[in-house]
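May I ask you to comment on the folded chain given beneath this request?
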Amino acid sequence: MSGTVIVGASVAGVRTAQALRSQGYSGAITIVDAEEEWPYDKPALSKSFLSGQSHRDSLELISKTEAASLEIELLLGTRAIGLDVAEKLLEVDRCVPIAYDSLVIATGGRARPSPWGQPEGVHVLRTLDDARKLHNDLSPGAHLAVVGAGFIGAEVASTARAANVEVTLIDPLPYPMSRVMTPEVGDWFSRLHEAHGVTTRFGVGVESIDGGRGNFALKLTDGTEVRSDSVLVGIGSMPNDEWLTDSGLLIDNGVLCDEFCRAIQTEGIYVAGDAARLMDQQTGPSVRLEHWTNAVEQAKTVAHNIVNPGDAQIHQSVEYVWSDQYDWRIQVAGRPSHDLDQVTHGDPFVQGRAAAIFVKGGALRGAVVVNWPRVLIEARKAIARKWTAQELNDRIESLTQSVSITSKD
């Protein structure tokens, strides 16, 4: 079998297949995925699907009818186990090696495993099956301990509170989503969770988790203990790249690829989504982005470059991720960071909306926006067009007069 073989049936893989057809690709397209589940979208797993407000059918990335009409073959329940780059063969666990003309690595990532083991009642959240198991433990009046206050942990805490589950949110860092937030913005989210009844334990780690479902004891690094009925361990993710260890591809917490999404020093191999470590055109070092929007945009780039190898496009996009927590829509554009200066517009607890603009030497680096879609649009446009921070601030000032300025010493 030749044509294009895509390894991974999450958003990057499926969108690559669809984009190939929309750009006129006429060769065979095969998607290989280790899960037996029909391809599904993952953002809802920590939100509406976990709460029971949305159902399995609403998560489909592509219908069976569309897959058939586009002549996209799916080999589900088939795990990629190796790659013969010289012979252009994908090795899988259920059949003979699959030949390809072009290969797309879109294997995504997996939840970082619990360091304390994973008995019944201790959960991670990355797959549909993970979400189903966690949902079963979110009964009203139960107590959930969430270890890790990143996006997944914070979203699950929000969903659990909406289900009248008691929640303790634990993180060794001083505030939620600390990788991209300054103390001021992080404080917004600490206050948000506390206002909705979450017990927060920030600045303290977990030493051990003992007991079983319905009676867990989490020993913390300050000597205290948290009791819970179930536990979610949300401490990050890892790229699914271990199957490529012996392939000769350059692997470093993801598959290294150039600005065209091509695997370094190979021909006919592309990478998209969470498994891609892409050369950064602005900063130089490679970066691995775990964002839904980035996966979709990389898929379009990969499809174009497969169809038009003589007119390859550089992958360029403004990083963007969103999170729904309680009644807040939190949107992050660019690369905000705690070591940048910050200009703050509004207050989410007063006006119900706010924006924090992140600056270094007058250059715009990123934005965190709460419940303010017009400003988010302006921020993404400003980053894409390389406006100065002042230009964006002037634009926001035209929308509101509420502004306060803070700077890092």
